[in-house]
Structure to design on (280 residues):
């Protein structure tokens, strides 16, 4: 009897890449939740001279102000993942509601919402975010609201496209003939059938939001000091590369690993939603 016989059938159905992604995401979440207990020093605590080399006391050395790099890397997981999650939830709430409403209502409502989204999407998202942050300020609240609103346009496109293929189905027409209201039809008939691709898109959208926050922080308009985040850590230590110090690669690797892991899980979810099966 092979080792696979002892593995539950549900786990055997999950590809190794998705399992790897789930484990990495769970690891990141645990670090974010228990950051104060895991970090050897405080987030903004100055513990030594600037740019101290890697040592037993400071496994990743110190930054330009003498703060422990490992501690800030751990706290950055909480800050970056927390803000990215909130911005993604906001984008999905706005985009999904507007997209389903446009597809179900049709007519003037659909045209107005679609044209507004077209105007917003015509502006490059990173440039638009930089402009708005410069005008409105770089607080955490502004960052979440701006990124959430900008990314909701992408969610709107997907939600509307999926819903447009559902509203023409017989069971939706039957609900309308019975006299069911607009929001009842959206909530009970359209949303459950649109959920699989939307759930998969949530993971994909989280990656884009996460990378946008890192890019804005690298440019100095994202998460502001003394809060730690991976984008600003790359920027603050980038000059060390010229001296053969690989410290800037550590937060960059944290960004890349999470992005790849989320994409592994999203690919598996899209495959599941497609209804395809493996053929051996």
């Amino acid at each position: 009897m092979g080792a696979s016989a002892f593995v539950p059938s549900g786990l055997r159905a999950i590809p190794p890449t998705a399992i790897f992604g789930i484990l990495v995401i769970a690891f990141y979440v645990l670090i974010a939740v228990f950051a104060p207990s895991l970090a050897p020093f405080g987030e903004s605590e100055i513990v030594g001279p600037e740019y101290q080399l890697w040592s037993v006391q400071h496994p990743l050395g110190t930054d330009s102000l003498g703060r422990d790099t490992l501690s800030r890397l751990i706290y950055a997981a909480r800050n970056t993942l927390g803000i990215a999650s909130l911005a993604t939830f906001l984008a999905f709430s706005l985009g999904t509601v507007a997209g389903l409403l446009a597809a179900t209502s049709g007519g003037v409502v659909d045209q107005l919402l679609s044209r507004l989204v077209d105007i917003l999407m015509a502006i490059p998202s990173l440039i638009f975010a930089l402009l708005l942050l410069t005008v409105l300020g770089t607080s955490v609240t502004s960052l979440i609201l701006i990124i959430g609103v900008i990314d909701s346009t992408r969610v709107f496109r997907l939600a509307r496209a999926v819903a447009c293929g559902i509203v023409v189905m017989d069971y939706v027409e039957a609900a309308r003939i019975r006299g069911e209201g607009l929001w009842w039809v959206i909530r009970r008939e359209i949303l459950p059938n649109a959920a699989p691709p939307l759930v998969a898109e949530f993971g994909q959208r989280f990656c884009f939001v996460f990378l946008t926050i890192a890019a804005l922080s690298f440019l100095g308009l994202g998460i502001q000091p003394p809060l730690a985040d991976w984008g600003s850590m790359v920027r603050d230590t980038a000059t060390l590369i010229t001296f053969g110090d690989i410290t800037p690669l550590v937060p960059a690797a944290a960004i890349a690993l999470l992005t790849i892991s989320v994409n592994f899980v999203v690919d598996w979810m899209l495959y599941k939603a497609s209804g395809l099966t493996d053929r051996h």
The two ends are 20 Å apart (CA to CA). The CA atoms of residues 240 and 246 lie 7 Å apart.
